[in-house]
Amino acid sequence: MLFSSFLSLASAVVVAVATPAPLSLHVRHESRRAVPHGWSLDRRADPDAFVPLKFRLRQSNLENLDAYLLDIADPQSPNYGKHWTPEQVAQTFRPSPDSVDTVHSWLVNSGGVDLQKIRIGSDGSIRVDVTVSEAESILGAEYYVYRNADDDKERIGCHDGYSLPEHVSKHVDLVWPTVHFGNHKHIRRAGDGSKGVWHRPGGAPKAIADDDAMSPGPTNCDKGVTLDCLRALYNFNYTLVAADKNTMAVVEFGSNVLLQSDLDGFFKHFDPQQVGHKPTLVSIAGGHLNASETDPENLGESTMDFQLVMGLLGRTQDVLLYQVGKDNNDQDPVDELLAALDGSYCSDPAIKQLGLVDCGNKPRANVVSISYSTSPDINDPTDPATTQLVQRQCAEIGKLSLQGITFVASSGDTGVSFGPTQACLAKNGTAVEGNAPGTFVPQFPASCPYVTAVGATEVTAGNSVSDPEVATTAFPSGGGFSNFFPQPAFQARRVNRYLKNSLPAGYDSSIFNASGRAYPDVSANGFPTVVAIDGEFTTSGGTSASAPIFASLVAAINDARIAAGKSPVGWINPALYSHLFATAFNDVKNGTNPGCGTQGFPAARGWDPVTGLGTPNFNSLLARFMSLP
Ligand SMILES: *[C@@H]1O[C@H](CO)[C@@H](O)[C@H](O)[C@H]1NC(C)=O
Ligand SMILES: *[C@@H]1O[C@H](CO)[C@@H](O)[C@H](O)[C@H]1NC(C)=O
Ligand SMILES: *[C@@H]1O[C@H](CO)[C@@H](O)[C@H](O)[C@H]1NC(C)=O
Ligand SMILES: *[C@@H]1O[C@H](CO)[C@@H](O)[C@H](O)[C@H]1NC(C)=O
Ligand SMILES: *[C@@H]1O[C@H](CO)[C@@H](O)[C@H](O)[C@H]1NC(C)=O
Predict the structure, then answer these.
(1) Could you tell me which residues come within 8 angstroms of residue 60 by beta carbon, excluding any fewer than 6 positions away?
(2) Taking the model in full, what pTM does it have?
(3) What angle, rounded to 10 degrees, do the helices at 65-73 and 384-402 form?
(4) What is the pLDDT of residue 330?
(5) Measured from the CB, is residue 590 less than 6 Å from ligand 5?
(6) Residue at 245 is within a domain
(7) Residue 464: which CATH number?
(8) Measured from the CA of 469, which atom of ligand 5 is nearest?
(9) Which ligand has the minimum distance to the alpha carbon of residue 235?
(10) Which residues are documented as binding site for Ca(2+)?
(11) Where is the secretion signal located (predicted)?
(12) Would you say residue 7 lies in a domain?
């Protein structure tokens, strides 16, 4: 036992050697409320076992991420559209030399760690090769072995959290392994069952498409929404001119796959030129297609997304299919996606330990459309691991936005509740299923401010495409306020106007968090979308349809900007809420998004948490984005 004499770090013992570390008190750096669901405490860890400790140091300048982003995304900024290079981003957020020095000299001087056992990564992460008993003395912690009931996997962790000296603590994000359990299986207790943590919204009723639904031209769009309906609704009649220079991707998770035969069947009817046109498969974490898939549950999402995006953009645009695998079921698919797109994300020790498959080796697209959601709020929001997971994912989305990528996500199909089980939060903070009265549950990634969240609208029965759309009634469109991300200033004026004028009586802070990031930002038609699935024309939809529709329009705007020698639009939210864009949307004023024993939020004039700023008027949006540098 090398450090058996070094008993408690709780006292401020500092051994001054070469570079004396400032005397400082130890503070509890992280702890967790309970053993994660599905795991149990098994035994004390073997003191001689080898446990390499990894320190993730605080990133530099993360507090400036919003300012950096606004500098290139605020339409008033002289630097609008001047996106950063990946190198600039990696450089800017790398931990500072001061952080590396502080932690390093503390380990050597106070921790008594042999210099040879410390490795500093080029990204500023620090690895220390020690035994359990050494780790215990360094961190003032006790290590235990935890066992998972499902698969008997074992994992080592500190039961009662861990401590760091105050002057070190402020340079460290986290130390691993300690209180973090990489896999988030425990989210499933909210009732997602075998579907896992992430799911496609899937709330729209499905039916066989009849002759009315299949009508040619923008007619009967209340009965079936075809490409012609969407073009007419959103004034979208644009022919791509820079398709070979532009990129767009749609993300699909796990067993959600498409059949080429369904794309061909759809295009044979609606756009014969595209029969045989395929998306380009980008396999992430082992994701693959399955030509023998027949289950409509597994075919509905991807098939719909690609029929819409390829249908709207036309034959000349290659569309990437980010197929995120199910081979690595334990991992969060958004982590897999972000790691595949950005090598600096996977060098993070907390990410590295997850054993993600790909790392910065997949092509990036200018627009990324995501029709899946999860909710941090039903995954033990007081657990530091939960907060860190969504914060680091959202920050990473922000860093990719800084490089000119637009992330578009569906806002969910269950109103103010979450997921297929319609979870809401009881007073004691636990998720209760079945729309029970309680606190509203926001969706992720829609609630990340760097994502453009899209709600769903429909053409009221008997109305035409020239009448105003309403928030969907076939299913409640997702929307609300984040509990994790504060409200960005660029949306505060519109949101406050809504809160002041349109909020139903009795909606207080026990029901939703008025200071949080409000979503959706925009909306687009989500019902009843005509889709060819497993050889049959059906109608379905959801915010799952709304997101790729809106994303396609952004891709078309990028096409025009690229052709004019400008950059892609990147993060568009500050522009969308700005004065310049005030009349670029079709305001949607009717409808609600019920859930949690309430009518949810009512749509209203201006921005609302059901349909956002409204549906796009493509020509107006295009003209405004073309007017920007
Ligand atoms: C779309 O644009 C083409 C070419 O500019 C034009 O011929 C056609 O009439 C337009 N279609 C609609 C529905 O406006
Ligand atoms: C493909 O789909 C079929 C039918 O659902 C299923 O039995 C098979 O396991 C799937 N194959 C793969 C590799 O996922
Ligand atoms: C929390 O409250 C819900 C609803 O009142 C109840 O069903 C559940 O058992 C409670 N859970 C705990 C841990 O107290
Ligand atoms: C409300 O949102 C703010 C800003 O994101 C957050 O700091 C706060 O913790 C949230 N409150 C609750 C009760 O979740
Ligand atoms: C919206 O609501 C108003 C007032 O209730 C009603 O007059 C109007 O017809 C509705 N519009 C649509 C498109 O449903």
Answers:
(1) 92, 93, 94, 95, 96, 99
(2) 0.90
(3) 30
(4) 58
(5) yes
(6) yes
(7) 3.40.50.200
(8) 13
(9) 1
(10) 587-588, 606, 608
(11) 1-18
(12) no
